From TrEMBL:
UniProt keyword S-adenosyl-L-methionine, yes or no: no
Reactions accelerated catalytically: ATP + protein L-histidine = ADP + protein N-phospho-L-histidine
Source organism of this protein record: Pseudonocardia kongjuensis
SUPFAM superfamilies associated with the record: ATPase domain of HSP90 chaperone/DNA topoisomerase II/histidine kinase, GAF domain-like
Signal peptide region: none
Main location: cytoplasm
Keywords: 4Fe-4S, Cytoplasm, Iron, Iron-sulfur, Kinase, Metal-binding, Transferase, Two-component regulatory system
Domain of life: Bacteria
Domain GAF: 37-191
Subcellular location: Cytoplasm
Protein name: Oxygen sensor histidine kinase NreB
Function description: Member of the two-component regulatory system NreB/NreC involved in the control of dissimilatory nitrate/nitrite reduction in response to oxygen. NreB functions as a direct oxygen sensor histidine kinase which is autophosphorylated, in the absence of oxygen, probably at the conserved histidine residue, and transfers its phosphate group probably to a conserved aspartate residue of NreC. NreB/NreC activates the expression of the nitrate (narGHJI) and nitrite (nir) reductase operons, as well as the putative nitrate transporter gene narT.
């Protein structure tokens, strides 16, 4: 691709700053960090494309900072390699502008051989490209399962054209980056769910211990006040102590409410994980929740439909499937929305199977929100129930 060469990848010396010299354990740790950290994954992707004379960058959707109106409607060039000026660093690219913004909007790779004279793109950033002496530019979306996470762009400072091998190379790196980002997002979600579960456990312990103690203190104060009889000074002191105990109880309840509250983005995952645990406890059948992508934030009515439908499906597995294991998966729905599936390894569906009242009601509820429910049986046993809802 006119000078583009591989840096050797995560195990080479060019893209990891000499990881092999740190030994195999450090090298494995570095690879794990790249998998579990979104920014590290992006840095590794750029390192794969490092080349003398070339400039490369990754543009990601702006999600925080700056003007709130730009969030979701603007990309930001957060990571760059090979630039000669500071003009590209932190550059914000409105969707559809330049080649980078265009590729993010279309979701398809594109290139131009003479950027400053290219047709079909806006020339919002000609001054930046000219200052970097970039002649031609190739941009590829970083996408997985219909969700675009950003754009990788590689600019060459020499004349020529991008061949099929160069395009395939950048696409392969973009696919690797998308997979690493998906893993990192799942890891982040798992950590957040674990934190919420620990906070919920602490809230329950505080409720059972401190809450019960404060209630007992308040009740005891009320009893002492009645026994104080005609001693106004003692009665007044006991009333003050009782009011203070009531205030402490109110403050504790507010704190417990905060501890138990889960962010909207975690609410569904936390609930589904709890339902899997409850199913396993009452049946002895292991049930695991697997979050395939960072699930979208659902409105309360959609969350209620999904949760109710999953519970109904798990109940049917418990009653009829004779399963030894169950897996619940949740992830992004192609085109937007959510898809949740309940898969078991049981006997499958009998011939001429008709859904019962519970599953039919779930399907009707999903249909009213523009979604659908499907049940399929595998030839060698087992069944999969699936609900899809748009956001």
């Amino acid at each position: 691709m006119g000078g583009m060469v591989s840096s050797g990848g995560p195990g080479g010396t060019g893209g990891t700053g000499g990881v092999p010299a740190l030994g195999p354990v450090a090298g494995a740790h570095g690879g794990l960090v790249e998998l579990l950290d979104r920014r590290a994954a992006m840095r590794a992707a750029l390192a794969e494309l490092a080349a003398d004379g070339d400039v490369s960058w990754i543009a990601e959707p702006l999600t925080e900072g700056g003007d709130p109106a730009e969030a979701g409607a603007c990309l930001v060039l957060g990571q760059i390699r090979g630039d000669r000026t500071d003009l590209l660093r932190g550059l914000r690219v409105p969707l559809g502008h330049g080649l980078t913004g265009k590729v993010y909007g279309t979701g398809r790779p594109a290139s131009v051989e003479d950027y400053l004279r290219a047709k079909g793109i806006t020339h919002t950033f000609d001054a930046h490209i000219e200052a970097e002496a970039v002649r031609r530019l190739l941009a590829v979306p970083v996408s997985r399962h219909g969700r675009t996470h950003g754009v990788i762009a590689v600019g060459a400072r020499s004349d020529g054209s991008f061949g099929d091998r160069a395009v395939a190379r950048v696409r392969a790196v973009a696919d690797e980056a998308a997979l690493a980002i998906a893993v990192a997002e799942r890891s982040r979600l798992a950590r957040e769910v674990a934190v919420h579960e620990e906070r919920s456990r602490l809230a329950a312990e505080l409720h059972d211990s401190v809450g019960a103690l404060l209630f007992a203190i308040g009740s005891g104060m009320a009893g002492l006040a009645e026994a104080a009889g005609d001693d106004p000074e003692l009665t007044d002191r006991l009333d003050r102590l009782r009011r203070q105990a009531d205030q402490a109880s109110t403050a504790l309840r507010d704190s417990l409410r905060t501890l138990r509250a889960s962010p909207a983005a975690l609410a569904l995952s936390v609930t589904l994980r709890a339902d899997c645990a409850a199913f396993a406890d009452r049946t002895g059948i292991p049930a695991e929740l697997v979050v395939l992508d960072d699930p979208p934030v659902l409105t309360p009515d959609r969350t209620d439909v999904v949760v109710g439908a999953v519970r109904e499906s798990l109940l049917n597995v418990e009653k009829h499937a004779m399963a030894s294991a169950v897996v619940v998966t949740a992830g992004q729905r192609p085109g937007g929305g959510i898809v949740v599936a309940v898969t078991d390894d049981g006997v499958g569906l009998p011939p001429g199977h008709r859904p019962g009242l519970g599953l039919t009601s779930s399907a009707d509820a999903a249909g009213r929100l523009g979604g659908s429910v499907r049940i399929t049986s595998e030839p060698d046993g087992g069944a999969t129930w699936r609900i899809e809802l748009p956001c």
